[in-house]
Write a structure and sequence with these properties.
The structure is a homohexamer. Chain A is α/β, with parallel strands linked by helices. The first copy, chain A, has helices spanning about 55-60, 75-80, 95-110, 125-135, 165-170, 195-200, 215-225, 255-265, 290-305; strands at about 35-40, 80-85, 115-120, 140-145, 175-185, 200-205, 230-235, 270-280. Chain A has an eight-stranded parallel sheet with strand order 2-1-3-8-7-4-5-6, with helices on both faces. Chain A is globular. Bound molecules: manganese (II) ion (12 copies).
Chain lengths: ~325, ~325, ~325, ~325, ~325, ~325
């Protein structure tokens, strides 16, 4: 403790200051990893302000995330076999649907190597191909924290925009709506999200949430997903713009970071098979607060992986 | 739903994306409108940081406000006959008192046409001439959400500054202090606002407000104003600067947007005869959060108009 | 002069404070206009930082552009029949190539109505479909001011990105490379632009430009395009980032605004059949300098139209 | 009240708009003061983002702090003999440990003159030499509001960094750990702060704090420090970065300003012998929110001094 | 040289780090001063973006201006008897014309004490009352560096706006147009400034200025004003917005700071009887560049005073 | 050319997008490299605004630097054996002089491996230990581009601050003042730099520089250093703050980027044995312009290495 510590502003920046592992775009090697940290710098699915393509870069650059989670009592970069495996090698920065195929191929490699993907968006449309890779054999449940349900149908000629990944995933049979809870919902597009309730998802609006009600909400979320394989998707716009201005479709009236952290930490022990943090757009983040919050969420997601029965090496599932 | 939607960043910007109606400055035509959206780009009444003259422009520019209010279940720009009628044509950008006369003349036109004014400041001094036009025949009640009472007397040679509109309105007999509640009060100028309590207004300080106490506060507000004609004035500095930094006299320790939205939505059914959102100063709004919050407040105000018995076409009052 | 002037921060914002004309997306009416100001909020062609979709909004919002050009001695919004005709109605915010078709259709309407299009991007890829509409009958010449030649070939699976519009236009036979000059070229992608020289364009690099050499450069530009129909395309990244930081692919070592204005003003009397100002991305424009520069360039372009023989009503061409 | 008031943006800026008193660096004269406001523009102790050396300048510049505290009912700059006595005259901007000696010497002058020091950092390492001067005769108790315990040991070759002042103070016998409470603790360095609990300090983590729980927390804090001489140290990073982005080691999940004000105001009547507000770094404060919050905290600290039995002239202690 | 230097970020901030002299608003004492530095935090005369009321505060806060001018070879704060005498005590922040009277009264005190006023705006309208005080006995000449002539007539009901001080001064007989040169003129309001040429002022437009042409321009300026008493007025918007974005009516195409410094330094030995630097509005100055440039201009102005025959103690005039 | 290109915002960020080489802090391996890119995140030597410790991180993050230099006609990352070797492993973030020892040790490793160091600061004090490593056997010449001479003596108790590296280097016998030219000098500290002229350095002030005079200046610089081993040190504050606001001691009146690039490119063929780019402080860089300029300068420095006879593998020196 009294020697030299590496300064937070030193060195090649990586996600969570995890070791970098450079991948061959054709033959990536995810072997030996419990958790693969993966950047997905793609924002062609946005409906309003673009910029989330710089999200992975923003989260790599933010300093002082981790190492120790004193609430969950774990040290994810030490306890897990984890690496910053770089970004999905997209074939094109101009082709939304091809990018989704690239994500699905890449995550399939991760899954086949026995690792759990922890992805950094990019816009929220990336969750659809991730779920296609994860839910191929059996639909997964999901805890989805967001200002938006992201279950709207096609418009402007496509259904692959960032407003619809979870409708797509249900229709593809890779997401189980009965085991899905959406938390933090608000804004003026409720009429677009009837698929959520029609398909059986549990929807918790922002106006129902209070700090005092968090323990009940956590219980409810745990009840919805149960012990089965579960995905966790965190859209940074679930936070109020006061806490996370750097995002493309901000909605006032959202969560505080203290509430979000409490919520995430309440999910310890779920059988998480993957997770993502999406929609960080640093162009709108004059204070770096959003990157800071996004980095901390990524850290909490990695911390939860230390307790996921889905990860063999943690010993939890044995 | 699966065709083309107009992108939020496209087209001539208007308040709430309502249709624009261009007015003749001499003979404005507000006929056929339930609600007239009106900009008041005037900030000569400020006591500290100027800039709210750019407030209407900031609220026109902000994207993705509305269309649907899922809490109140209304679609204000569809349900109401509403238009962005442009800005009050001020005779001078150098004459505070003349500008007040211009506001009063303009709002009188609105009232005479049977429309309800929904104004976007500008500094808070504009509420005084608005109230003069609205309360001409009978004093109105008011729900006033602000960090400041704005009932101080003259200083620096005038009583028409933004610190005194409601003292002026009471003294002019257009505002009923017994039917007035001021919510969110804080800061270091309490000694200037004795008029509030002396005249019989109800004053609720920020330090009395908690998220858990909001239902009680809403009941109290509804009790104070009752069923009579009521004005609603929302100073963006009622929000904590974390949520709304872009304003001229910020005061830490204020409301969150989630609290403010809950408060506003709790006022459904009041007999609103007008409303305003004031003091948005985009020069201090590095993240556009303040414009976003101000736009959302404007949307909530318009939503409340859908349920105001004072608006004939809503059918509520019949 | 001693009455009231409309304040620059008042009213519905339009390009150059020109009158707004609202268009039917299906049957637009450009009749009676000399010059149609048109927004093109589309940035799917960018190779790096997105955001130019907010360019038209940024140029509408900027205050104090015009009315009088004392160097060219004209008052474009008074001298010309000109209107802010709104934005191209794009069918989709997710489809680059469809957007180009939308632009081409829209500009064809403009041309058929006898008006000259003055477009505000959006990314530079929009110039290709504009040129397709303008050069349909006969290839046009071009003065192109930019840090980049924008004549590179396909990559990432498309040739419709913002790095290639002028190669595309030449290959489509709508742009005459022998009558094309590119000014301000720099950066690290020279190897991608061999098409420029191979096709016979005149390329003037930034490092060849000095303030003292501007008169010669103006003569050279006039010689290249001659008296034939000419397009003028101004990429804001031709300016040094010190003058225009708000753009997606900044390149240090560029023009000052004083140089750019001198260059543009030196083009008086050319037979301009259209022009654009592109690549303003306000997310990166902390000072609004870029919008200010872009707005001024738009004003200079409109001013040049007062002297273009291609515009009948100017009387110049008669 | 109806004459001229000095505008908040006028005049030579001072802390709390208190009168300036210029000191001789060799023979400072603090006589006749109850409270000495002192800047400490020193940030050599920071572990991450530097910049707090500009903290005193930021707090002098912020406008509209005070004069009246309506919650505590006092007017500190009027009720107390108080002055902005300028900054500690540091011998070097390159020598951390010498700077600590300079602080200790300076505060010793303050103490010997019978005044109470109210210091504005600068980084948190300054609290150690302040406590050395204040606790020389008898260790003081402390209420410490911070995201970090600041009780870690030496690293990078020194123990005088901003992560360790309170461990140092305990080891020097000037701070009584049994009478110390640390509030707001969070982040990923818990493993570095075992000294806090080992020495007997009371540690309250951020995740234990709720708005509803504040009264209990205040009681607990008052119990810990009791009636003895007490120091109050407020690190601005105790606030959530949404409320105070301008600091060097932000930690999401912190206090709101409303909570912090309530907490501070709950400490009325404690026997405060000194206080500080530290770690305001305006380079990261795009909205000036942090300076605003820091200025308000300084005002609350001064207000508490009006009720401290340790200050003779208040009459409270007599 | 090898002892301690006061750090640029330390201490009570003053203009040019000159000693502060606190004035009695009723009976100010300017005796014994060669040069009085005076803040004029008043921006009621602006026609567009307000904010210059924070100009004096911005110039006090900027660090590292002076002490030595190696081009002019002088040390103004050492060579001159100079002090930061605080701000003009305005009677009202709401009354433009009264504020002008306040300025005139204040500067008359300065003049009567035998000192030369060096003023920091505030908007440019302050130059009119300054000239009224300075030119009372005999009209002065002027070197005026600005993007705008500021000789337009009344509009919006007043002639005391910041667009007209020099027309006012000529009509009041305190400014000699034949001995006046205006440098850097541009923008779109030329038609408002015919008074300049009609009255005989020399107008030099920005488009006539080149770096190579500066020596000739300096000669021309010296010729226009000659050896008589001369005022120097520097509007920060003379600089291009790239160099000074923080101002209310920016105009692209302006001077670089290198050009402005060369121009000012070329005026050594003129008989300056006063000078000002105006229109710094820090709200628009995200980089502090404008305050930096404004502070440096103030330093150059003070340096020129070391060589003005109008200042007795310099020995130049003897 | 028509396949996929790696997007500029993708992947682990490195200096110049060069391959990363991870070093053992104890036994670094620089073998096989022509040029070692090295970060030096240390800013303890600054005299004013800190922050340059984030310089290496800022230059790694900036996108779109390189690959091809069309003026010098080279592709440095392809033509040279070059890698981003990470940062100097500093033993302490609190010890200025120890950090210098760490730099010297590290650069000695580089030199002994036969590589040329290309360093990214950090503050300018790092150049002193670099020169100690490079000039051990024989003093080197230097082209130094800066606003400041950085030859002042000790103050505040040390001579190792960023204002004195080149005085230190001369006194240590590792820098030959007769072969040293300093370009861009300005500001108010000339009286501190008499060592420059006294020791025989050539000093070129900013006010002597014009765009037209650059060819002569380049010749002069080449004459001063001749064919001997030469170091090139580029302080980003040599640029005018309009071009590079993100630095700690900005000085208005500096170089444009176009001038700086011309100057650097004029140095082709010099026998460069090392170079640095220092003083980028991203906290003050609201537009990222400074990082952009710094990245481009780094690219030009690498390009010059392609032509340095001191680098064996270039073939130039053989
Ligand atoms: Mn989402
Ligand atoms: Mn969302
Ligand atoms: Mn108010
Ligand atoms: Mn208020
Ligand atoms: Mn282009
Ligand atoms: Mn370009
Ligand atoms: Mn601390
Ligand atoms: Mn802390
Ligand atoms: Mn002016
Ligand atoms: Mn001007
Ligand atoms: Mn230097
Ligand atoms: Mn320097």
């Amino acid at each position: 403790k009294d020697g030299t510590r590496v300064a937070p502003f030193a060195g090649h920046p990586t996600l969570l200051s995890a070791p970098a592992r450079v991948m061959d775009p054709e033959v990536p090697d995810f072997s030996g990893l419990d958790v693969a940290l993966i950047g997905m710098p793609m924002d062609m699915g946005v409906s309003n302000r673009p910029g989330a393509r710089f999200g992975p870069r923003a989260l790599r650059a933010i300093e002082r995330i981790g190492p120790y989670n004193h609430v969950l009592d774990c040290l994810p970069v030490g306890d897990l076999r984890i690496a910053d495996t770089g970004d999905v090698p997209f074939r094109s920065r101009f082709a939304l649907e091809d990018s989704h195929a690239d994500v699905e191929r890449w995550i399939t490699h991760v899954v086949e190597a026995g690792a759990v993907p922890l992805s950094v968006g990019g816009d929220h449309s990336i969750s659809h191909p991730i779920l296609r890779a994860l839910g191929r054999d059996r639909p997964v449940g999901m805890i989805h924290i967001d200002a938006h349900c992201d279950t709207s149908g096609p418009f402007d000629g496509t259904r692959f925009h960032h407003g619809g990944p979870f409708r797509n995933a249900v229709l593809d049979g890779v997401l189980d709506p009965a085991r899905t809870i959406q938390i933090g919902i608000r804004g003026s597009s409720e009429y677009l999200w009837e698929f959520s309730t029609a398909s059986g998802m549990t929807v918790v609006h922002a106006e129902e949430i209070t700090e005092a009600g968090l323990p009940g909400l956590i219980r409810r979320a745990r009840d919805v997903v149960g012990a089965g394989p579960t995905y966790l998707s965190f859209d940074i716009d679930s936070l109020d713009p006061a806490f996370a201005p750097g995002t493309g479709t901000p909605e006032v009236g959202g969560l505080s970071t203290r509430e979000a952290l409490a919520l995430l930490r309440g999910l310890k022990g779920l059988s998480l098979v993957g997770a993502d943090i999406v929609e960080v757009a640093p162009q709108y983040d004059a204070t770096t607060n959003t990157a800071q919050a996004g980095g901390q969420v990524l850290f909490e997601l990695a911390s939860l992986m230390c307790f996921s029965p889905a990860i063999a090496s943690t010993g939890v599932g044995r």
